[in-house]
Design a protein that fits this description.
The chain is of the alpha/beta class. Helices cover 41% and strands 20% of the residues. The strands form three sheets. The chain has a seven-stranded mixed beta sheet with strand order 2-1-11-10-12-13-14, sandwiched between helices.
Length: 366
C-alpha cells in the first residue's frame, strides 16, 4: 500500500528523526544493512541487492586502494550508466576520495581541461581516448583504468589497467590495509564530487559538492515527493549528471528503494518494456523524454499497474502534463528547477499540487 501523503511523510520522518551528518559511504553502509535483502539496482535485468552491492563495493574499494588511490585523491570518472558507476560512487566515498564527473560525450580538449583543472590523480574510462595526449598534457594522472579492453596498447609504467585487473589487485592487500580502509575518517562536510558546468563562462568550471549537499538535497526531494519506502524508480537519464545522481540514485538509497537503468541510451520501446517488466513505480526524466514516450510509445494505463508517480523537469508544452497523467493513469506528477551549484533541485512542486500549478510553476523551495 502506497499510503496517503501524510502517512508517507510520517514514514520518512521515522527513518531519520535526526540528521547526525552522513557521508555517501556511511549512508550506504547504514542502509545496506537495514535493507540488505532488497534490490538496490537493476541494470538490464542484472539485479543486485543492497547486501550484494555492499560486497561488490568493498572489493572495488580494496582494488582502488591497491593501485594507489588514497583519501582526498581526485579521481576523474567517464562512465555511462551501469553498475560500475554506482559501485564507484560508494567505493570512492569509502576511501575518502573525490569523484570528478566527466561527461560521457566530452571531447579530448574538454576532457584534458577537466583533468587539469580538477588536479585529477586517476582517470576511469568507459570509452576510447587518445591516452598519449592525456599522458603528455596531464602529468598528474598516475593511472588510467578502462572498463573494458578499449585501448590497444598500454603506456609506460603500467599507465593503463583494466577494471578486472583492479578487482584482482584488491585481493592482494594485507589485513592491515583492509583495517585501514574500514576506518578511514568520514567527514560529511568534506568533498564528495566535483562536477563541471559551463554556467556563465566559456570553459567548464568545477563545482565543489560535499557529501552533506548531496544527501540533504536528496532528503528534501524525498519529503517533497512523499517517496515511500521501497519505491522502484526508472532512471533513463545520465547518472553522471546531478539530476539522476541526487533525484534518482540517492533518493532510492535513502528510502531503501530500487534504481532501474539500462546501459543503452534512451529508447522509447525499451524504456516502456523495462517499466512494465520490472514493476516500476516512478520515472524521472527530462520533458523531451516524456514527450517521446507519449508520442511514439503511446502508453496505456493498464500496461503500468505499478506506476504511480512521474517527474520530469525543464519547460514543456502545456498538453504534456495532462497527457502524461492520462497515458499512465497517474495523478502524482511533478516538476522542479535547480542547478549543479545548488546540489540539484532547489524548488519543486508537490504531488498534491493542482494540475494548473504544475503547468505554470516549477514549485516551491524543497
Amino acid at each position: 500500500m502506497i499510503g496517503s501523503p501524510q502517512e508517507r511523510l510520517a514514514e520518512l520522518d521515522n527513518m531519520y528523526p535526526e540528521w547526525p551528518g552522513y557521508t555517501q559511504w556511511t549512508m550506504f553502509l547504514k542502509n545496506s544493512r537495514l535493507y540488505s535483502t532488497r534490490e538496490f539496482y537493476n541494470v538490464d535485468g542484472d539485479s543486485v541487492t543492497y547486501q550484494q552491492a555492499h560486497e561488490l563495493i568493498d572489493k572495488l574499494a580494496a582494488g582502488l586502494y591497491a593501485i594507489g588511490i588514497r583519501p582526498t585523491d581526485h579521481v576523474s570518472v567517464c562512465l555511462d550508466n551501469g553498475p560500475e558507476l554506482i559501485q564507484l560512487i560508494y567505493a570512492l566515498a569509502k576511501l575518502g576520495a573525490v569523484r570528478v564527473s566527466v561527461h560521457f560525450k566530452a571531447g579530448l580538449v574538454e576532457t584534458i581541461h577537466i583533468l587539469k583543472t580538477s588536479d585529477s590523480n586517476f582517470f576511469i574510462i568507459g570509452k576510447s581516448y587518445d591516452l598519449e595526449e592525456i599522458h603528455n598534457n596531464v602529468p598528474t594522472i598516475k593511472k588510467v583504468i578502462a572498463l573494458q579492453n578499449i585501448m590497444p596498447v598500454a603506456l609506460q609504467n603500467n599507465y593503463l589497467m583494466g577494471w578486472q585487473d583492479v578487482i584482482k589487485a584488491g585481493k592482494t592487500i594485507s589485513e592491515e590495509d583492509i583495517n585501514f580502509i574500514n576506518t578511514i575518517p568520514q567527514d560529511s562536510k568534506g568533498l564528495s564530487d566535483i562536477m563541471f558546468t559551463s554556467g556563465s563562462t566559456s570553459d567548464p568550471k568545477g563545482v565543489m559538492i560535499t557529501h552533506d549537499m548531496v544527501l540533504r538535497s536528496a532528503w528534501g526531494t524525498c519529503r517533497t515527493r512523499y517517496i515511500e519506502s521501497g519505491r522502484r524508480m526508472y532512471v533513463p537519464i545520465p547518472l553522471y549528471h546531478m539530476f539522476a545522481y541526487v533525484e534518482g540514485l540517492t533518493c532510492m538509497l535513502l528510502t531503501g528503494g530500487t534504481v532501474i537503468m539500462t546501459r543503452e541510451h534512451f529508447n522509447v520501446y525499451r524504456s516502456l518494456q523495462l517499466m512494465r517488466d520490472y514493476h516500476v513505480n516512478d520515472i524521472i526524466c527530462v520533458s523531451v523524454i516524456m514527450i517521446e514516450l507519449l508520442t511514439k510509445g503511446k502508453p496505456k494505463p493498464e500496461d503500468f499497474p505499478y506506476l504511480h508517480a512521474a517527474y520530469w523537469a525543464a519547460a514543456c508544452p502545456k498538453w504534456v502534463w495532462e497527457a502524461g497523467r492520462k497515458a499512465f493513469g497517474i495523478n502524482d506528477v511533478i516538476t522542479s528547477y535547480g542547478m549543479t551549484e545548488c546540489g540539484s533541485t532547489t524548488v519543486m512542486s508537490r504531488p498534491d499540487d493542482p494540475a494548473d500549478t504544475v503547468e505554470k510553476w516549477f514549485g516551491r523551495v524543497k
